[in-house]
Amino acid sequence: MSIRILEPGFNVTIQDLGRASFQHLGVPVSGAVSPVALKIGNALVGNKPGTACLEIRLIGPTIEVLCDAIRVALTGTITEIELIGENGSCRPANQSLVLKKGQKFKIGTISDSGSAYLAIEGGFNLPEVYGSLSTYVRGSIGGFSGKALEQGDEIPLNSGNAEDRGELRVSNLAALEENGPLRIIFGPQKDFFKKESIRDFLTSPYLITRDADRMGMRLDGPVLKHERGYNIVSDGIVTGAIQVPGTGQPIVLLADHQTTGGYPKMATVISADISRMGRLRPGDTVKFMQVTADEAEKARFEHEKMILSAISGFVNADPWLDEKALYTENLISGFL
Amino acid sequence: MSPGNSPSNPVFLSAGDTALVIQYGEVVDVSINRTVRQLAHAVRQLDIPGIVDIVPTMRSLMIHYDPLSLTKQSLINAVQPLLANLEELEENNKKWLIPVCYEGEFAPDIDEVAKTTNITIDEIVRQHTLLELEVFMMGFLPGFPYIGLLPEVFDLPRRIEPRVYIPPRSISVAARQTTIYTINSPGGWHLIGRTPVDFYDANRDEPILVCAGDRIKFKSIPSSEFAEIEKDVKSGNYNLELE
Question: Do A262 and A144 fall into the same domain?
Fold first, then answer.
């Protein structure tokens, strides 16, 4: 029961919702940079919300099904799944589908998002490290041998077949397409910055530079000037923290960030907007908007409601015509 | 006294809507770190549902929480009563005796440190192995401990040019603290030795060796014994416990 990686794509890793409870040992949380897409993908294939998926950033893999059948769903993008050897036929993202043994399929360039997820019914049969399958490549922790997928890897699955049942499609993409400014709460070190820089930060767009990975994204925009220096005694860090080193160009920290660090953090992106942040890609611009702690808490509940409504709004996906079966069963003349 | 510098009157800072920072100061101070760890212990004892992790650092405690089960205010309300009544930590942490080779290629910066501090290499080794030290906090890398306080001779600034690559198991010093690099990493501390012990090993049942509060003493070993000790550590035949 497994799939084989024919082409690895670019830095494709196995991620779930991460290991949040080992930061006191210096272990980064890791996990999906865009948890919403992961949860919706899992719901489409009937998994628990936090089941590990393949996280795809920029370029997806080509995969062969080695077991009887698998049920998959691609989310976080509108890029289609290309079925190889089916005259280039494609299947849309954001719906479940079953792929049979021997089927090769390709997820090409992801051009509309910084992260996409391939959920597979049953998930991967891999050992948990500190309670999670998430891959932290720098520390060789978790996932498939602690690394990004490579050509020839055979990834074991928990399920080698896909029960016959209706396929599902996301009808309401709102939860996956939220945009607008990223909402922030100032602090913990807002007082380290000059007043005019705090204003610049809220009024100017910032560009996501190419210096972006699962640890963080370096932004380019008005320089944020320190009032009280840029070396602080290290303190804790959360995902979404916006730290500003000596250059004055902010870095937004993502899932693989260090657990502690010594640069002042001007502000923190609220948890309701973390998934949105994880969809940003180099070349995108982003603006920031201040909210209060109360507003952040409300926003998070709204956000969870939106995910639930996306899932309860799933509709039946039209079954795609299995042309080969139609031919072999000699039904084609009467059918089409 | 600036806000947050009083042991019973720290400041509460927000780190977004998923973590609360309780800050006792903005400087490296062993007594602040001790207070932070006492608070960490006290919060852990409360066992509040919704707390995800409790991370002590030199100057503050970060409490990670799930905003769907806990509000910032309810967390502050729960923590506030603890502040005035922190208790001395019980000494039930592990004690380690860690072998270190301070020779040759294992100690690329030891000559420079000797020059800067104007003492002999033998004296550096003596001072680094002299005291029973304490793990103040964990951070930076998986299993990476901040250990101190070393004797004053190690009150060194970081290197002007940080290294891009530091091999795992490197023993480094700066600002009267010492640490062991656990995975390949950049870093700015001075490398004065190498241990055959893995402070992090992904393939071990318990990948991370030490935690905040543990005691550590270093012990000098000659390079001629390094490989042998390395083998014994790996097979579990080397005693790392400090009597």
Answer: no
pLDDT band at A332 (very low <50, low <70, confident <90, very high): very low
Is A259 in CB contact (< 8 Å) with chain B? yes
Nearest to B147 by CA among B54, B90, B211: B211
* Cross-chain Cβ contact A300/B68 below 8 Å: yes
The pair phi, psi for residue A226, each rounded to 5°, is: -85, 140
A206 & A82 share domain: no
CATH class of B11-85: alpha beta
Check whether A292 has a pLDDT greater than 80.
yes
What does pTM read for this prediction? 0.92
Minimal Cα distance from A237: which residue of B? B15
Residue A241: give the domain boundaries: 177-307
In chain A, the number of structural domains is 2
Residue-wise DSSP of A248-289:
---EEE-TT--SEE-S-EEEEE-GGGHHHHHT--TT-EE-EE
C-alpha pair distances (Å), A38 with each of A176, A278, A279, B184: 10, 11, 12, 30
Tokens of A273: 């907007």
Beta bridge partners of A107: A81
- Token look-up 């040992």 returns A25
User: What is the reported pLDDT for A324?
Assistant: 52
* Alpha-carbon gap, residue A308 to A313, rounded angstroms: 8
Indicate whether A166 and A184 sit together in one domain: no
Q: Is the CATH code 2.40.100.10 the one for domain B95-234? A: yes
Residue B112 phi, psi (nearest 5): -65, -40
Residue type, position B138, single letter: M
CATH number at residue A290: 2.40.100.10
CB B1 within 8 A of CB B29: no
For the record, the structure tokens of A87 come out as 């005259």
Question: Does the distance separating the beta carbons of B15 and A265 come in below 8 Å?
Answer: yes
Contact A139 B59 (CB under 8 A): no
φ/ψ of A11, rounded to 5, equals 50, 45
- Mean predicted lDDT score pLDDT of chain B: 93
Residue recorded with tokens 């083998």: B231
Please enumerate in sequence order all residues whose Cβ is within 8 A of that of B82, keeping only pairs 6 or more positions apart, or say none: B39, B42, B43, B46
Q: Is pLDDT at B7 greater than 80 in this prediction?
A: no
CB contacts under 8 A, A 95-154 vs B, are: 129-130, 136, 138-141, 146
pLDDT at res. A333: 47
Chain A residues with CB under 8 Å of B18 CB are 238-240, 271
Whether residue A28 and residue B27 make contact (CB cut-off 8 A), yes or no, is: no
Q: Residue B43: how many CB atoms within 10 A of its CB?
A: 20
Q: Are residues A302 and A320 in the same domain?
A: no
As a whole-number percent, the residues of chain A with pLDDT over 70 amount to 94
- Single-letter amino acid, residue A249: Q
For chain B, percent of residues with pLDDT exceeding 90? 81
Res. A330: pLDDT tops 80: no
Q: What is the pLDDT at residue A211?
A: 93
pLDDT at A188: 95
Residues A204, A263: one domain? yes
Q: Which of B16, B28, B52 sits opposite A233 (nearest CB)?
A: B28
- Numbered ranges of CATH 3.30.1360.40 in chain B: 11-85
